[in-house]
Design a protein that fits this description.
The complex is a heterodimer of chains A (about 325) and B (about 625).
Chain A: H1 2-37, E1 44-51, H2 59-74, E2 82-86, E3 121-122, H3 128-136, E4 155-162, E5 164-166, E6 169-172, E7 176-179, H4 180-192, E8 198-204, E9 220-224, E10 234-238, E11 243-247, H5 248-258, H6 268-272, H7 277-280, E12 285-287, H8 301-304, H9 323-329
Parallel strand pairs in A: 1-2, 1-4, 2-3, 4-8, 8-9
Antiparallel strand pairs in A: 5-6, 6-7, 9-12, 10-11
Helix pairs in contact in A: 2-5
Chain B: H1 7-19, H2 21-38, E1 46-47, H3 67-84, H4 89-99, E2 102-116, E3 121-133, E4 142-150, H5 157-171, E5 179-186, H6 188-200, E6 208-209, E7 218-226, E8 234-238, H7 249-262, E9 266-268, H8 281-299, H9 305-309, E10 315-322, H10 332-347, E11 360-364, E12 367-370, H11 371-400, H12 405-410, H13 427-449, H14 451-457, H15 462-478, H16 480-487, H17 496-518, H18 520-536, H19 543-552, H20 555-569, H21 576-597, H22 601-620
Parallel strand pairs in B: 4-5, 4-7, 7-10, 8-9
Antiparallel strand pairs in B: 1-12, 2-3, 2-6, 3-5, 8-10, 11-12
Classes of the chains: A alpha/beta (about 325), B alpha/beta (about 625).
């Protein structure tokens, strides 16, 4: 009789030990996961998408910017967190044979203008001054909310720029330029004012790599469509509309992004491989030395999407009421 | 005392130029002519290329398919025109309205200074009909023009039909950012001039044109079409305009790229394009094209309605359909598609055409010579005049000072005394100048003014009277030197002719320089003929030889010679009598062009070059 009692006691102790170990394992797993929740460091996403050229024959720049806008919206960033700057109105240009549309694939397969595009800076408002004010936050108080970049030190910002550029500059509206030094200084101002956590800068212009040469602030990753001395080429000539519809680099980036969904685990190394020289004719470049994390640990959705970290747990926690306490209460 | 240069060195250089004057002149003249001939050869002539970014490539889809409709319109137009004898205005208005355009008409009238024998008209009055296609979503700030000139000799009915069919097609498209004006003019170029003057609200030529009731904005480009047959074997393009103005080269490039895209055969001056520029064939044919273009540009007449548009800086071309005996023919749909493509690309323009050359010479449809490369030819020719003038001035200075060139060369340190203030005396120069200019003025004013008087006294028609008066005054100028000396006291010393020649050389150089800038072909042509004779004209030496040379290079003789050359280059050579008839016709046409369109050849020759030539004639016969 005493032996079975002893055995029972041992069994209970063993069970308790096992339960305890499982419990501690579970807790540490939750802690790990909790830690991982905040590993990327950002809690919100912003996007600043800029098209700097006007005139009908620069249709492709507007189409580029709208393609990235479409991808970014599809992956979750809302309009309130996107600052879209388009220097000219292609959809309603009198020369557009299909009014209210901007196509990115010939034969009119994909209309990137859509029904719910929200342009924040339009036409002549896209100037170097306005762009720098948006980035640095030095905006007059009368500016509406939709035109501000209200980012904080936990924001990951995607900045995409396209237009005509050269060695060290980007042309705005055929009348002014922004130099790579100004851009680098603007990013430094952002860093000093703690306006970003991490920044991804993509540029699709001729000699685009010259624009990221001068960056010196931490946590910036940059991609460009061509090296210094190379031209970025256009793609998709469409005879029905009469212009080129896209630039090569952004066309292939769009194709890549079409396959990303909010749960994708693709990382930045995949983005670096988009558009090799055989497809793009120019050599895309990238810069990661200022970035603290390893690109292979950076998810595409860290910048292009606004992924809420939602963890679905399968464990149940049962809540049991203590009846004595309840009786005391009453 | 020279501060910035060494006077002794300068004088030595001047004396070198004086000694080597004749060889330098010959060398310079030869260099000018050789440079001009070398323009047709590859390093100096380049392939054309599209400079305007907005027009880009030929990346449009032409969808015009209204060939049958065009032919029906053409048949109706021809029938109505035959019935009414003039432009069927009411039918045109109805047709344009049925196609969907805003239709307006404009009346004009003009009394020519004397009857035009070639077109058989004197008091001209007519009506232009035009329809405006408004851009659906743009403000009417800019426009393009498609025009068809209809005269009594060329009915152009297929062109009218194609214009109406194109208007119907264009009306169905929504991508127009500029208004398109479809213009049908009566009496060819007179109607076009009346319309243009009323559109731009100016009155340059004395045309009475009614004001326009409908307007469309600044014209960016215009295309004139002349088609007389249902099928064409090639499309010919004419670029030379009034006073030698040319459209922007990009418009020609646009036409050429659409011809290539549609497989249409396009020609310049009616000739097939040379393919082989590596060997000698291409450049030789290019030289022929170049010479023809120089002659056409020098004549200054508008070779089509486009020539009149150019005055208002509207880039324009004239396209003519040629139906020859070649086997492969294109129908109206092919021509219509080329025009549709051109207009669609012109629609993309944001500014006027300005990126490409305004001044050029064509050696083929796809090869051109830019102004920077052809100007040195004229420069070398004018250098001859400069050298001669410089030599004369030095000679006069040295002789006034009483020091011969040999003595001065021997003693480089000895500074010759300054010459006394113009011992020649300006008074003796003024008389020949005034008389020559007066004869020139008479040449300009008298023929037209006195045509009635002449027609009363002689059994000739007014037009012939004008031409004969012209020739008479021209020849009377030749008799002048023998009479001037009876009027003017010959106090001038023996070397007085040098001063006159110096003035004449400078005058000629100035005129040729100015004309070469405005109309290079005219300047070069006159320079090539007048410069040697002008440089050689002296009272000493073989006077008859110089006299013959001077007469042979006078402006009228140049005109005669270039007519022969022109027909020779077109492979339709003239006999002497035919040439003379053509010469008389060209004279009357030149005067008429001046009064009707404001062409400047007649006043420039009468008031500028002829007096200058008379001065040299005076120098030659100086006593």
């Amino acid at each position: 009789m005493a032996a079975t009692y002893c055995l029972d006691r041992v069994m209970a102790a063993l069970a308790g030990l096992v339960l305890l170990s499982f419990g501690s394992l579970a807790i540490s797993k939750i802690e790990d996961q909790a830690e991982q929740l905040f590993r990327s460091g950002h809690t919100n996403n912003w996007a600043v998408l800029v098209c700097t050229s006007r005139f009908w024959f620069n249709y492709r720049h507007v189409a580029n910017t709208l393609s990235v806008y479409r991808s970014v919206k599809r992956l979750g960033i809302p309009d309130s967190h996107i600052v879209l700057m388009l220097a000219d109105d292609m959809a309603c240009n009198p020369r557009n044979p299909k009014p209210a549309t901007v196509f990115s694939h010939k034969n009119m397969e994909l209309n990137v203008y859509g029904d719910d595009v929200e342009v924040d800076y339009r036409s002549y408002e896209v100037t170097v001054e306005n762009f720098l004010r948006v980035l640095t936050g030095r905006i007059p108080s009368s500016t509406p909310r939709s035109k501000r970049l209200l980012s904080d030190d936990r924001s990951n910002i995607l900045i995409y720029m396209t237009g005509h550029g050269g060695n060290g500059f980007l042309k705005f509206q055929d009348s002014e330029e922004i130099t790579n030094i100004e851009l680098a200084d603007a990013f430094e101002q952002m860093w000093q004012k703690r306006r970003y956590n991490e920044l991804l800068f993509i540029i699709d212009t001729c000699q685009g790599a010259s624009m990221y040469e001068r960056f010196y602030s931490p946590n910036i990753m940059a991609l460009a469509s061509s090296q210094v001395g190379e031209d970025s080429l256009s793609h998709q000539p469409d005879p029905a509309i009469g212009v080129h519809l896209m630039d090569r680099y952004t066309f292939y980036v769009l194709e890549f992004l079409e396959e990303i969904n909010p749960a994708s685990q693709n990382n930045m190394n995949d983005l670096f491989q988009v558009c090799p020289k055989s497809l793009c004719v120019s050599t895309p470049g990238h810069r990661t030395d200022l970035f603290q994390r390893d690109p292979k640990n950076v998810l595409i959705t860290d910048f292009f999407g606004s992924v809420r970290k939602v963890e679905i747990t399968t464990e149940t926690i049962s809540l049991q009421l203590d009846s004595e306490i309840m009786e005391d209460r009453y | 005392m020279g501060l910035l240069s060494d006077p002794v060195r300068r004088r030595a250089l001047a004396r070198l130029v004086l000694r080597l004057n004749a060889p330098l002149c010959v060398l310079s003249y030869g260099a000018g002519i050789a440079w001009f001939l070398a323009l047709a050869f590859p390093p100096l002539t380049q392939r054309t290329y599209m400079s305007e970014n907005a027009m880009g490539s030929t990346m449009v889809e032409e969808q015009f398919a209204g060939g049958d409709r065009a032919r029906n319109f053409a048949r109706d137009f021809a029938a109505h025109r035959r019935k009414s004898g003039a432009l069927p205005v009411a039918w045109l208005e109805r047709a344009m309205q049925s196609v969907g355009l805003e239709v307006y008409t404009q009346t004009f009238s003009r009394k020519l200074p004397f009857p035009d024998e070639t077109h058989e008209r004197y008091m001209v009055s007519g009506t232009n009909v035009y329809g405006i296609l408004r851009a659906p979503r743009a403000a009417s700030t800019e426009s393009l023009v498609l025009t068809v000139p209809c005269g009594s000799d060329s009915t152009n009915s297929q062109a009218v039909g194609l214009l109406l069919a194109l208007a119907a097609h264009f009306r169905g498209q929504i991508y127009w950012a500029k208004d398109i004006i479809f213009l049908v003019t009566e009496h060819d170029l007179l109607g076009t001039e009346a319309w243009l003057e009323a559109y731009h609200d100016v009155n340059v030529t004395g045309m009475q044109s009614a004001p326009l009731r409908g307007r469309a904005g600044a014209i960016q480009a215009a295309v004139a079409l002349e088609l007389s047959s249902d099928v064409v074997t090639s499309l010919d393009v004419a670029v030379e305009g009034l006073n030698g103005q040319l459209p922007n080269l990009d418009l020609l490039n646009l036409f050429q790229t659409f011809c290539q895209k549609g497989g249409l055969l396009c020609t310049l001056q009616g000739k097939l394009q040379p393919q082989d520029w590596a060997s000698l064939d291409g450049p030789l044919q290019g030289l022929q094209t170049l010479l023809l273009m120089v002659l056409r540009q020098a004549s200054g007449c508008p070779h089509g309605p486009h020539g009149l548009f150019l005055r208002y800086r509207v880039e324009a071309l004239t396209l003519r359909g040629i139906n020859s005996f070649r086997q492969y023919k294109y129908d109206l749909v092919a021509v219509g598609k080329a025009l549709e493509g051109m207009f669609r690309k012109l629609n993309h323009l944001l500014e006027r055409l300005h990126q490409s050359f305004f001044l050029y010479l064509l050696t083929a449809l796809s090869h051109f010579v830019s102004i920077g490369l052809y100007m040195p030819a004229a420069g070398f020719l004018l250098l001859v005049l400069g050298l001669k003038a410089h030599a004369l001035e030095l000679w006069m200075q040295l002789h006034e000072a009483g020091v011969g060139p040999e003595e001065a060369g021997g003693t480089p340190g000895h500074v010759p005394p300054l010459p006394p203030a113009q011992g020649v005396g300006l008074a003796s120069l003024v008389a020949p100048l005034l008389i020559s200019q007066a004869v020139g003025l008479a040449l300009y004013i008298l023929p037209v003014l006195s045509q009635h008087v002449a027609a009363q006294h002689f059994p000739v028609a007014e037009a012939e009277a004008v031409v004969l008066t012209l020739l008479a005054i021209y020849a009377a100028g030749l008799a002048l030197p023998h009479n001037t000396h009876r009027v003017v006291n010959t106090q001038a010393p023996d070397r007085g002719w040098m001063a006159l020649k110096l003035v004449a050389l400078i005058y000629l150089a100035l005129q040729l320089g100015c004309v070469a800038l405005i109309n290079f072909s005219l300047g070069f042509l006159l320079a090539a003929t007048m410069v040697p004779a002008a440089a050689l004209a002296e009272p000493r030496g073989p006077r008859p030889v110089y006299a013959v040379l001077l007469v042979l290079t006078s402006p009228a003789a140049t005109l005669l010679g270039s007519l022969f050359l022109w027909r020779e280059l077109q492979e339709a050579p003239l006999s002497l009598s035919e040439g003379w008839q053509l010469f008389l016709a060209a004279l009357s046409q030149g005067v008429l062009d001046h009064y009707a369109y404001g062409a400047l050849l007649f006043p420039m020759v009468a008031l500028g070059f002829y007096p200058c030539w008379l001065l040299f004639w005076n120098v030659l016969f100086w006593k």
